[in-house]
Amino acid sequence: MRGGRGARPGSAAAAVLRAAVLAACLTAAGFAASCSFDYGQALAEDLAERTPDAVFTNFSHTVVQDNSPVLRIEAASAEFFDKKNLVRLSAVTFTELRAGRVLAFGSADGAVLRTDTEDAEFFGTVNLRSEEEGVSIRTGYLSWNASDRVLSGDPDGEAEIRRDDGSFLRGSGFRADARRKGISFGGGVEGLLVREKDPAGETGETGTPGPAGGEAGE
């Protein structure tokens, strides 16, 4: 299923990227601290795998560029695992800003951010919203592959994308490619695309279900 201009996650995907990059910023800022104890080697390694090096509750952090906040992230708890190069967050919210204006925001029941690859996973009830482009995403799971710049959902899970003009796409196997600026669904997809007015002042709408593996982009 192919849609018109704007049927894509837009800045909402950018907010996920910045949330992933945040993990590296936190570590570089010295938030994570490590401890060692005189246990046997096997037990120590097992504990290191399961025990965070640092835990914060009511966690809040703001990334600032040029004396202006660009990303704010808050979580009920944050666990740092130095050897695994990851951060676990619960009840997390994040907001992307520009010159004091909210560009995008999102929330998830939980998240795992990798400090070595800048990959990220969001799970539970996941909501993303781009104020700049008027697009919202709601699903149960999202993963961000930083090297490929791909945002993907559960192959068997449903994702729904809505625009402020009333358009929506819903299906399973959601995938968004930031380089191509397009989205696709691996399973059955349905939706309604509201097109912009043509020069004659007419509008068009399509509302038939699309085939499996349908794609929408610019």
How would you describe this protein?
- With 218 residues, this protein is mainly beta.
- The protein has a domain at 11-34 and 52-163 and 173-188: lipopolysaccharide transport protein A fold (Sandwich), CATH 2.60.450.10.
- Helix content is 13%, strand content 50%.
- The protein is built from two helices and 14 strands.
- Strands 1, 2, 3, 4, 5, 6, 7, 8, 9, 10, 11, 12, 13 and 14 form a 14-stranded antiparallel β-sheet that branches.
- The protein is globular, with a radius of gyration of 20 Å.
Architecture blueprint of SSEs:
Blueprint (H helix, E strand, L loop, with lengths): L10 H18 L12 H10 L3 E12 L2 E14 L4 E13 L2 E14 L5 E11 L4 E11 L4 E4 L4 E6 L4 E5 L1 E4 L4 E4 L3 E6 L10 E2 L8 E3 L1
Antiparallel strand pairs: 1-2, 2-3, 3-4, 4-5, 5-6, 6-7, 6-8, 7-10, 8-9, 9-12, 10-11, 11-14, 12-13
Q: Enumerate the spans where pLDDT stays under 50 for 5 or more consecutive residues.
A: 1-39, 206-218
Order of helices and strands: HHEEEEEEEEEEEEEE
Q: Give the mean pLDDT.
A: 74
Question: Distance between the terminal alpha carbons, to the nearest Å?
Answer: 12 Å
Largest sheet entry? 14 strands, antiparallel
Structural class: mainly beta
Helix content: 10-25%
Q: Number of DSSP strands?
A: 14
Radius of gyration: 20 Å
Oligomer: single chain
- The proportion of residues in beta strands is over 45%
At the first level of CATH, the class of the domain at 11-34 and 52-163 and 173-188 is: Mainly Beta
Shape: globular
CATH topology heading of the domain at 11-34 and 52-163 and 173-188 = lipopolysaccharide transport protein A fold
CATH architecture of the domain at 11-34 and 52-163 and 173-188: Sandwich
CATH homologous superfamily caption of the domain at 11-34 and 52-163 and 173-188: Lipopolysaccharide (LPS) transport protein A like domain
> What is the count of DSSP helices, taking H or I runs of 4+ residues?
2
